[in-house]
Amino acid sequence: MGKCCCPNRSAITDGTFSGLRNLIRLLPTGTAFTYLFLGPLFSNFGRCHPFNKLLTGVLVGVCGWSCFISTFTDSYVGLDGRTHFGIATRKGLWPSRRESHNVDLAVYRLRFRDFVHALFVMLVFAVVVFLDPNTVGCFSLTSNRSFLKLMPPLVGMVSSVVFFFFPTSRNGIGYFSTSSSKSREISLSTAQGV
């Protein structure tokens, strides 16, 4: 009677923070924050004039492009012990510095799952845009409210399933590389053949 049938709180907390870390890695927080901060200003708080529509459209485009490109960034720890960032290419990581010749950058090459992640990160960002009442008001997207209400849980559910089957361990700009995450990616790509 003295034993508690509740799970260990430490395990629950660790699992929650691990899930939150993975979620944060999916959508670049700096880009999302920039959009959420500047969106109301650029859209004149939803009461757009033609110039406000142009500014808001450019903001959505630039932030969407930033989300897309960030899915192809990764980091590695060089022989100097410092973290270096680069962009994944077909041949490997295009480094930000030249002293990476002793690190095997081919491990970081583009894979099919990178493009899957880029597509779904763009969809998640689109949901953020469509949930912003200022942008919706600016572009008069209020005519189909049922679609706007259905889109977030639908995209969230589909994205969760896709991210489960196509996991990534890319450590983009702002997310520092760990040796365990890269070894995990190598074992995943070997097991999945992707």
From TrEMBL:
One of its GO terms (cellular component) is cytoplasm. The chain crosses the membrane at residues 23-42, 54-72, 115-135, 147-166. It is a multi-pass membrane protein. InterPro entries: DMP. GO terms for biological process: endomembrane system organization. It is found in: Membrane. Keywords: Membrane, Transmembrane, Transmembrane helix. Signal peptide: none annotated. Its main location: membrane. Belongs to the plant DMP1 protein family. This is Uncharacterized protein. The lineage of its organism: Eukaryota, Viridiplantae, Streptophyta, Embryophyta, Tracheophyta.
